[in-house]
Design goal:
The chain is an alpha/beta fold. The chain folds into two domains: 2-125 and 271-320, Medium-chain alcohol dehydrogenases, catalytic domain (Quinone Oxidoreductase, Chain A, domain 1, Alpha-Beta Complex); 137-264, 3-Layer(aba) Sandwich (Rossmann fold), CATH 3.40.50.720. It contains ten helices and 15 strands. The strands form three sheets. Strands 3, 4, 5, 6, 7, 14 and 15 form a seven-stranded mixed sheet that branches. A six-stranded parallel sheet has the order 10-9-8-11-12-13, with helices on both faces. Strands 1-2 form a two-stranded antiparallel sheet. GO terms for molecular function: NADPH binding; oxidoreductase activity, acting on NAD(P)H.
């Protein structure tokens, strides 16, 4: 099989496309033929050497969709469509940047769909992060206001649609004024140009502040995002688009406004039941949700795909078809 292997942290050019034996599944494992996978900023950070504990060489890839090739236990039939995400993929063990991958059975979600693989490949991590942030973490309710910081990211685009369908008023941010109409078409009632300071702009629309904030940019803007919340409001940090893990000299009493709540969402720790993924696939099939897919690549183009991700030009998800 072909696999994109990285032997040391660095630039996209560190990926080497090589032939490897198709791996053999052991107890509790399934061999999956990878049909598509999405690219993620966390993989970019791992590639750069910013993910603690990752040992190289490594096949990256924290998510995929595909078909079961071999399940030694017989639980999954050959050809069953499955998706998988997180749980150590591409970090603790080799992930989806390959034609085949061996995955722990506990990570698999079986599904049925008429959607093409390039669309299905955009779903697992993007949907799980958006849904998990909005519901288990933020507990959104109809009639609330939601600020999405990092609105043109794939998760931000999907979260805006899900929140809009759920009856929320969505404020979405971008640093590029030319993307304002794109965000409005995607479900945002208000688009804010992100200069790094949003509180004044938010309070011009909601004088008391917003009910909820979904922080996707990360630690560099988190303090300002929390200042946009009304008393009793909740902020959830789910992304690190700015590639920053920590907050220097963090002082909670100064950082978090009084009575404002701060939480996080991590799809590697809390995942949704298989039925939730299947329900979402049905929504996409019915046209109730439109996935923002920026561009597709082949596995042979993995270097170009990471170069494009590095450029920050993407609006929506990048998908690779092995």
């Amino acid at each position: 099989m072909k696999a994109a292997v990285i032997y040391r942290p660095g630039s996209p050019e560190e990926f080497i496309l090589e032939e490897r034996p198709v791996p053999t599944p052991g107890d509790g494992q399934v061999l999956v033929k990878v049909k598509a996978f999405g690219l993620n900023r966390s993989e970019l950070m791992t590639r750069k050497g910013f993910s603690p504990g990752v040992q190289f060489p490594r096949v990256l890839g924290i998510e995929c969709v595909g078909e079961v090739e071999n399940d030694p236990s017989g639980e999954y039939a050959r050809g069953q469509s499955v998706m998988a995400l997180m749980g150590g993929m591409g970090r603790d063990f080799d992930g989806s940047y390959a034609e085949y991958t061996v995955l722990p059975k506990r990570l698999l979600h079986s599904f049925q769909s008429t959607l093409p693989w390039e669309v299905l490949g955009a779903i697992p991590e993007m949907f799980q992060t958006a849904y998990g942030s909005l519901y288990p973490a933020l507990g959104i309710q109809p009639g609330e206001s939601l600020l999405i910081r990092g609105g043109t990211s794939s998760v931000g685009m999907l979260a805006a649609q899900l929140a809009n369908v759920a009856g929320l008023t969505v404020l979405s941010t971008t640093r590029n004024p030319q993307k304002e109409s794109l965000l409005r078409d995607n479900g945002a009632s208000h688009v804010l140009i992100d200069t790094g300071k949003l509180s004044e702009s938010v309070r011009a629309i909601f004088p008391q502040g917003v009910d909820k904030v979904l922080e996707l940019v990360g630690t560099s803007t988190l303090h300002d995002s929390l200042s946009c919340l009304k008393p009793g409001g909740t902020g959830c940090m789910s992304g690190m688009l700015a590639e920053n893990w920590t907050i220097p000299a963090f002082a909670p009493m100064e950082f978090i406004p009084p009575t404002v709540r701060l939480t996080t969402y991590d799809s590697g720790q809390i995942s949704s039941p298989t039925a939730v993924f299947q329900d979402f696939i049905r929504q996409v099939e019915a046209g109730q949700v439109k996935l923002a897919i920026s561009q597709t690549f082949t596995l042979d183009q993995i270097v170009a795909a990471h170069q494009f991700m590095d450029s920050n030009q993407s609006v929506g998800k990048l998908v690779v078809l092995p």
